Amino acid sequence: MSDTFPHAHDTTGSGPVLLLAPGGAGHPMGLGPLTERLAARFTVVTYDPLGLAHGRLGRPVAEQRVADWSEGAHRVLEEVLPPGESAYVFGTSSGGIAVLDLLARHPGRLAHVVAHEPPCVTLLPDGARRRAELIDGLDGPEPPPAEGGSATPMGVFLAHVLRPFTAHAPASPLPRAGSPSPPEPTRAANSSTTQHSCSPTG
């Protein structure tokens, strides 16, 4: 199992639970204005799968797995959801890939899922080429550090998230939010049972 930090999250606001899954390496930087606006209508739970915003930036990180991020998100929802209620979920980029996997594994506690630009390029007809182009475009000859005192979230993303996540194909067919949890999902082609669009950008 990869080095996830499954219970790291921040909660603000009041109303129905809305889980946010950030992109990149899962650091929630830049989501402040969005969280502030959403908190007027929702209990916003911002998931930090590697705990990078909770004191773990700079520590060693293993190669990441989509399943670990989605299972960590599920454990967070089990912590914060009142009995009998379901959550809204929004994930962007790598977080979008994670929430598609969350939907595949645990649809029963989800009210609605939005995956914003998940870079699931392997679904494209020329997916292998597009994935190689994406990696080449992001991972330069001198990437930022992923460990130590000068580590950055981008460094962690390039070193441990970019390759495994862009190799991931969402389950097909995806269940509808609110349906009973299925057996282990089948990895295959595209689905339209939730709002998502696959993009060659990270």
3D structure, described in words:
This protein has helices at residues 32-38, 66-80, 94-105, 127-138, 153-166, and strands at 9-13, 17-21, 43-47, 87-92, 110-116, 195-196. By secondary structure, the chain is α/β, with parallel strands linked by helices. It starts with 8 loop residues before the first strand and ends in a 6-residue tail after the last strand. It is globular. The relative contact order is 0.18. Mean pLDDT is 88; it is low at 185-202.
Instruction: Please write the string of helix (H) and strand (E) elements.
Output: EEHEHEHEHHE
Structural class: alpha/beta
The number of helical elements comes to: 5
Q: List segments where confidence is low: pLDDT < 50 over at least 5 consecutive residues.
A: 185-202
Major sheet strand order: 1-3-2-4-5-6
User: Which sheet architecture does the biggest sheet show?
Assistant: 6 strands, mixed
Tertiary shape: globular
- Helical content (DSSP H or I, runs of 4+): 25-40%
Rounded to an integer, what's the Rg over CA atoms? Answer: 16 Å
In angstroms, what separates the terminal alpha carbons?
24 Å
Number of strands: 6
Strand content bin: 5-15%
Q: Summarize model confidence as the mean pLDDT.
A: 88
